[in-house]
Amino acid sequence: MLKSNIVIGLDIGTTKVCVVVAEKDDVGKLNVLGKGRSNSEGLQRATVVNINKTVDAIRAAVADAERESSIKIKGVNVGISGAHVHCIYSNSEISVNQSGIVNDSDVRRFLEKAKTNIRYLDIDHEIIHVIPQEFIVDDQDGVLDPIGMAGATMRGSAYIVVGLRTKIRNIKQCIEKAGLEVSAMTFEPVASGLAVMKDSEKKSGVVVMDIGGGTTEVAIYIDGAIRYSEVIKVAANDVTHDVAYGVKALNDVAEEVKIRYGCAYAKALEQDEEILIDGIEGRPRKSFPKSSLTVIIEARMMEIFELARDIIKRSGYYEYLNAGAIITGGGSLLPGTEELARDILGLDVRTGYPEGVSGGIKETINNPMYATVMGLVAHSLQNNLYQDYGTVAPPAPSPSAEQLSEAVVVSSAEHPFDSPQHGKKWVDKVKKFWDQL
User: Fold this and answer.
1) Boundary of a domain, candidates 103, 134, 161
2) Which residue, of 161, 178, 209, is where some domain finishes?
3) Is residue 227 domain-shared with residue 140, that is, in the same domain?
4) Buried-most residue among 20, 130, 170, 222 (CB within 10 A)?
5) pTM across the whole model
6) Could you list the residue range(s) of the whole structural domain that residue 123 is in?
7) Domain count across the chain
8) Do 145 and 211 lie in a common domain?
9) Residue range 127-147: average pLDDT?
10) What backbone phi and psi angles, to 5 degrees, belong to 4?
């Protein structure tokens, strides 16, 4: 049976690979048909370092999603991020078509001209997609969606998302080796924001922090568009490494201890207790105070939020964040994280869960760790990136044992390719319309 309204999101992260199969229901919400997840060991801070391990992780996640949805997955919208990605500011101006009413063709011509006007693009980079900043139709400025407006000329600006050809090729190669096709690539900070923000927050002014395994992405939205972002090279994996060092245990044990007993805010710790931790290579178990574990975790999480606070203030938008901050991603799940973020950032804070989701398995993806992948399917539905060739498939076989076995760099108009220690500055503005290549 042919399925023509299916969209697939693929999030290839530092610690996990997530796949979601979804469609739009009768009231415009995301009806999740199936999901898959597997551990990822082939990436470091959003960059592929092991092709085979990444391919195996993609296959395992896809197999789970196919079994749950009964949909044969082929084309995917994959998230793109990493130290090789640049957002380049570009101006554009065109004459409106003879009817004097801006249409879709005019917008596409506007964006095509923006692409031809960009600087700093060499043969080592390729354009991923274009994010419009704003449109000015004649003398009417601040327009986010110009279609249907009357005017003779349309000008404005856009940000062109580009990346290193070799890095993009590695991502595509992993996807193709897993038997899939790349239908689209979406800038991950935008996907995460799309998944967790409410419209009122986006318009009022809000900062979204996605704390992943390898990096923490900070994106600021004002008046309905993304205005500024940086990526911090400190995230959840660093917390785990600190725990492993502090309790003298293997990383796998430290991760389990962090998830089971961890707290990010010392003031939220109700009572102390002794935690039993497995020794390395058959050594006897040892005890460790929960209060000391909290101190270790709090120190690293505090660093993340202090760096984020510096980014927000440096952006110049701190005073405009009427809706405060949204923290999301797997690294936001530790108890006390909201309270610590509130103290450090000096803003109202809530934890971001995927919005606008329906369906029988809604609760299974109602988790911040699925924010990016849910944003990818939401972006696909928003831009009609349907999988026309998907078919219902018989249950896929279980994955075999073998199968289971960096900050966003950007250039601003003022400081192209300028890089601070914990992340690289970029200014980015977005609207509803995207030009996919």
Assistant:
1) 161
2) 161
3) no
4) 20
5) 0.81
6) 87-161
7) 2
8) no
9) 88
10) -115, 5
Burial class (CB in 10 A: 0-12, 13-18, 19+), 90: buried
What is the residue-wise DSSP string for 378-403? HHHHHTT---TTEEB-PPPPPPPHHH
Q: Give the Å distances, CA to CA, from 96 to 100, 114, 415.
A: 6, 15, 33
CA distance linking residue 257 with residue 246, whole number of Å:
12
The domain that holds 284 is classified in CATH as 3.30.420.40
When pLDDT is cut at 50, 70 and 90, the band that residue 360 belongs to is: low
Both tokens assigned to 74: 């082929």
Check whether residue 340 and residue 203 sit in a common domain: yes
Residue 74 inside a domain? The answer is no
Spacing of C-alpha 331 from chain mean position: 13
One domain, residues 213 and 334 = yes
Distance from C-alpha of 206 to C-alpha of 181, rounded to nearest angstrom: 34
Give the tokens for residue 233.
């090279």
Average pLDDT over residues 154-169: 87
**What pLDDT, in 10s, does the model give residues 275-301?**
988 888 878 888 999 999 999 999 999
In this structure, what are the phi and psi dihedrals at residue 40, rounded to the nearest 5 degrees?
Answer: -115, 125
Whole-number mean pLDDT of the chain?
Answer: 83
- Which segments of 269-320 does DSSP mark as H helices, in order? 290-315
- Say which range, 110-124, 165-179, 183-197, 398-412, has the weakest mean pLDDT: 398-412
Q: Which three-class secondary structure state does DSSP give residue 23?
A: strand
